[in-house]
Specification:
The complex is a heterodimer of chains A (293) and B (536). Chain A is α/β, with parallel strands linked by helices and 293 residues long. Helices cover 34% and strands 28% of the residues of chain A. Chain B has 24 helices and four strands. The chains are: A alpha/beta (293), B mainly alpha (536). At the A-B interface, helix 2, helix 3, helix 4, helix 5 and helix 6 of A face helix 14, helix 19 and helix 20 of B.
């Protein structure tokens, strides 16, 4: 099972180039697609989900080009779009029954899977309520349930934790980890902690191009020995910002604890264990031509 | 910033937002078509066997009247979405948090509506000039004679239309499809009020002028008076005719509208009516209060029973912890393709009917029984008309629901969703027609009236096909609601041959034509949807 993206570019009307010669090969596991807002993640998700067409290049699902036979992929695809709606007059069961019919699930399978999925996303007790009365997080969970209806081999989730409270976010991360195995899961997000918790592979995307594709460990290795922390008086913070690539700041009673990226340590700084967020910022900074010194 | 500047910017922003949408091109297209129809003589005005020579006065009067009569109908459907758009885009909630008053907001919306409608009127004015310059126009162009009826009568009628549109948007029950259908009948009523003095031969007076919101009685009355002086044999009568075959054989020189204080006062009166309607709308406007929105939706029966906001707060998000894991889910055997067309049709039918209250079914059942037990002629030309107007707001969902509720990405990423989902949606509409009009179907079957039965089946096929095609092409429910109501009124209700898609009389029934039209509409819907999908 593999999904191959070959030199894909996407240009919208008006000339905006959302993706440029993007290539990537995915195998079973969770691929975390990380990138800043406007990087091209949602465009890529749309192409993989057969919602939009690439202007150039091709996408191959198990060797077959999806543009030529999209239904071959669609029958094994689960897709949770970033922005989606529900029919407000239906309840969760009816909505999933409708989508099961659209996706071509047989009646018996749909009847078994729908209650299971509602239980999985913790909506069993709210299943009879009209979706119009659901909160944003509950609608998001209905979206997750519909994406899993057909037991997808390719699961694409675009910003899935948006609108979820911290507890539900943790549950969803665990669910994604559970789901990985003999399927490809593409998790698009700009929340590094979501990827950190679940991804077996990470692809960094910026300005429509692939910045890096590696395991989390390999990305962390890239930034090993390049993360430093030291305490500065709060009055000096602006000067530090201008001279260094800051990863994070924390105000404490003894001053501001500043975490910076760079090949050489600032005077008085101590090396610290890098996080994935450090690696992400480091790669983006390098891609933009920023100096991490 | 002073109030007039704020008002200017609100109207400007709203106007720009509208005119930069593709749908505005359709709006302009309609005005251009109306201008062309008059240019080519497809729409013309005649008084008995007379029509005017194409001088500035005649062209200005005719184009002005056509604008105020036709655009007051079409324009309503064009502009009735301004508050809805603020609601959908959530811009309304930002505006609600500003010091802006409700009357200020509704006034800005009415003015913005008027700006859009004025753009349509100005196109007609341009068309009038082009007609006189290029199409055998007589005499010199007199800009006053040409433009004054267009601007004075046209803009006045548009101001009323703009205000009614805002008013409808602030009344929960009229905000949606019910309002779209109700406006057609309101327009008929206002037009009738306007035109009645002409039909009854009342002489012009302050009262007739005040009732004449389109200006048709005022202008036609003056034209008739002039003709009476020119030709004592002239017996009166005037009207708009669609189709070039109705052109009058005799000509006369229309010297133009004789403006007087009564006409000006009557226009000021109607502008005042528009202003009052805007103020009433301000009183009814909910200022995007979510609590009132929920209440409004419940009142308008557009939603299933939703929890009140305070109930929503109490709704447990984490009801209980589940022990189920992804690995416990029933596995699926991939590679088996199920074509569940019937299941999908039933699911679409359920989606259509969902949210209807018991009384909707009670009325539908009553109409079914009415068709079954009324005398066959009455059932065929009377009860069935109501039975097939009743579900109009359900048919108008066809082809639009996916866009309206943003479910396209989910649905169109399913295997074989095109054309299966589209056709099953249409089939659900046909089932709905067969059910609601089923009483007549049974009667025709029992009477062994095969022609009548064929016409009935074709109508049940045609109505959802029209809804689907308009829905898919426009992604809006309004076009079907407006077109269907007008068509229903002109064709079946008045038993006009070729337009009577229900076949209310054997003489007006043309089922073969409508069967072909249905197939064409389905083809259009499929091609349009296919064009919109990346991978169909």
């Amino acid at each position: 099972m593999n999904l191959v993206i070959e030199d894909v570019s996407k240009q919208y009307r008006g000339g905006h180039l959302a993706l440029r010669n993007f290539s990537l090969t995915m195998k079973p596991g969770v691929l975390g697609l990380l990138g800043p807002n406007g990087a091209g993640k949602t465009t890529l998700m749309g192409i993989l989900a057969t919602i939009t067409k690439a202007t150039e290049g091709r996408v191959l699902w198990n060797g077959a080009e999806i543009a030529k036979n999209p239904d071959a992929l669609r029958s094994v695809l689960g897709y949770l779009p970033q922005d989606f709606g529900v029919y407000p007059n239906l309840n969760a069961v009816e909505f999933l029954e409708y989508l099961a019919a659209v996706k071509g699930l047989d009646k018996a399978t749909a009847a078994r899977r729908i209650p299971e999925l509602l239980e999985l996303v913790n909506l069993t007790d709210a299943r009879k309520r009209a979706l119009g009365g659901y909160s944003g997080g509950m609608k998001q969970r209905v979206g997750i349930a519909q994406a899993l209806l057909n037991d997808p081999q390719l699961l694409i989730v675009d910003e899935p934790t948006a609108g979820l409270d911290p507890e539900e976010r943790v549950r969803f991360r665990n669910l994604l980890s559970d789901l990985s195995g003999e399927r490809i899961v593409v998790l698009s997000t700009h929340i590094v902690s979501d990827v950190e918790a679940t991804a077996t592979d990470i692809a960094l995307i910026a300005n429509g191009t692939l910045v890096a594709h590696a395991t989390p460990e390999a990305l962390l290795l890239q930034v090993e020995g390049k993360v430093w922390e030291w305490v500065v008086p709060s009055g000096d913070l602006n000067e530090v910002r201008q001279r260094h690539q800051i990863s994070s700041t924390n105000r404490r009673s003894d001053g501001v604890h500043v975490r910076v990226l760079g090949d050489e340590p600032p005077q008085g700084a101590q090396p610290v264990t890098p996080s994935l967020e450090d690696a992400y910022l480091f790669c983006l900074s390098r891609h933009r031509g920023g100096v991490a010194a | 910033m002073n109030r007039s500047r704020v008002l200017f910017h609100m109207v400007r922003a709203d106007f720009l937002e509208r005119v930069r949408r593709y749908s505005f091109l359709f709006t302009l297209g309609f005005s251009i078509y109306l201008g062309y129809a008059m240019y080519s003589g497809k729409i013309n005005m005649q008084l008995g066997s007379y029509h005017g020579v194409a001088n500035s006065a005649w062209l200005g009067s005719v184009v002005g009247l056509a604008g105020s009569v036709f655009l007051s109908l079409v324009g309503f459907y064009v502009v009735k979405n301004t508050i809805q758009r603020d609601r959908e885009t959530r811009v309304g909630r930002i505006l609600a948090a500003t010091p802006m008053s409700r009357s200020f907001y509704t006034l800005s919306k009415a003015l913005s509506n008027l700006a859009v409608l004025s753009a349509m009127i100005l196109i007609l004015a341009g068309a009038a000039i082009v007609i006189q310059l290029t199409h055998g126009g007589v005499g010199r162009i007199s800009l006053f004679d040409l433009l004054s009826p267009i601007l004075i009568f046209g803009l006045c009628a548009m101001s009323v239309t703009a205000a009614i549109a805002v008013l409808f948007e602030t009344i929960p029950g009229l905000r949606g499809g019910v309002g779209n259908i109700a406006y057609f009948f309101l327009w008929c009523f206002l037009l009738n009020l306007s035109i009645r003095p002409l039909l009854t031969g009342q002489s012009p007076s302050v009262s007739t002028s005040m009732r004449d919101y389109t200006g048709i009685t005022t202008i036609s009355g003056q034209m008739q008076a002039q003709l009476h002086q020119l030709d004592p044999e002239y017996k009166g009568g005037s009207g708009f005719y669609i189709g070039s075959s109705h052109r009058g054989t005799k000509t006369f020189v229309w010297t133009g509208v004789k403006w007087n204080a009564t006409i000006i006062l009557s226009r000021i009166f109607w502008i005042g009516v528009a202003f009052c309607l805007t103020l009433i709308a301000a009183g009814l406007f909910d200022r995007f209060d979510p609590a009132r929105e929920t209440l409004s939706l419940k009142r308008s029966k557009k939603q299933a029973v939703l929890p009140k906001p305070d109930e929503l707060d109490r709704l447990p998000i984490h009801i209980r912890e589940t022990q189920l894991h992804a690995s416990d889910l029933t596995p699926l055997v991939h590679g088996r393709s199920h074509v569940r067309f019937v299941a999908l049709v039933l699911a679409e039918l359920r989606l259509l009917l969902r949210g209807q209250h018991w009384w909707w079914y009670a009325v539908a059942a009553g109409l079914f029984v009415g068709c079954l037990f009324a005398p066959l002629d009455s059932a065929r030309s009377g009860v069935i008309l109501v039975a097939w107007l009743w579900p109009a707001l359900l048919w108008s969902q066809l082809g639009t629901r996916e866009a309206q509720f943003s479910t396209q990405a989910i649905i169109f990423s399913a295997p074989h969703a095109f054309p299966r989902q589209l056709l099953s949606s249409w089939a659900a509409g046909v089932v709905l027609a067969l059910l609601t009009g089923g009483g007549l179907g049974l009667r025709l079957m029992l009477a062994r009236d095969t022609d009548g039965l064929f016409g009935w089946v074709v109508a049940a096929i045609f109505i959802p096909a029209l809804a689907l095609a308009l829905g898919v092409c426009t992604e809006s429910r309004k076009p079907f609601e407006a077109v269907y109501t007008a068509w229903w009124y002109i064709g079946p209700l008045h038993q006009m041959r070729k337009l009577d898609f229900i076949g209310t009389q054997p003489t007006s029934s043309t089922p073969g034509l409508y069967l072909a039209a249905s197939l064409m509409l389905l083809l259009v819907a499929c091609l349009w949807r296919r064009g919109r999908l990346a991978h169909a």
